[in-house]
Specification:
The protein has 112 residues and is mostly beta strands. The protein is 6% helix and 46% strand. The protein is globular and about 40 Å long.
Length: 112
């Protein structure tokens, strides 16, 4: 399992958000460097963003591509992409970032 994982739930449908594309970047100076990507499974989980690569301390950005997900559901949405920027201070710990989405809102928190 990757050191950074996520779980996406579609609160408008009361179901996991399957087939949602996600990108992971780390901040490098003023730029962002891609370090991983994935797609949520049928349970809305993405556990292989970094693969087996070691986690480094730094500022990370998860970008959830909500627009194509909702378009596939034939649902209009306000958010095409949802970026979540967070800080990894202790690279020895697992970081789980869940996302709750609906067509016109979202919420996130540090999970376990």
């Amino acid at each position: 399992m990757s050191a950074i994982t996520t779980h996406v739930l579609d609160t408008s449908r009361g179901r996991p958000a399957a087939e949602l594309k996600i990108e992971l970047h780390i901040k490098s100076g003023e730029n962002w460097k891609s370090v991983g990507a994935g797609v949520t499974d049928e349970n809305g989980r993405c556990n292989a963003l970094l693969g087996e690569a070691p986690l480094a301390a730094g500022t990370y950005r998860l970008t959830f591509h909500a627009g194509p997900y909702f378009k596939a559901q034939h649902v209009e949405t306000f958010y095409s992409d949802i970026p979540i920027i967070f800080e990894v201070r202790d690279a020895r710990t697992h970081h789980h970032i869940p996302l709750l989405i609906s067509p016109f809102g979202y919420s996130t928190y540090r999970g376990s």
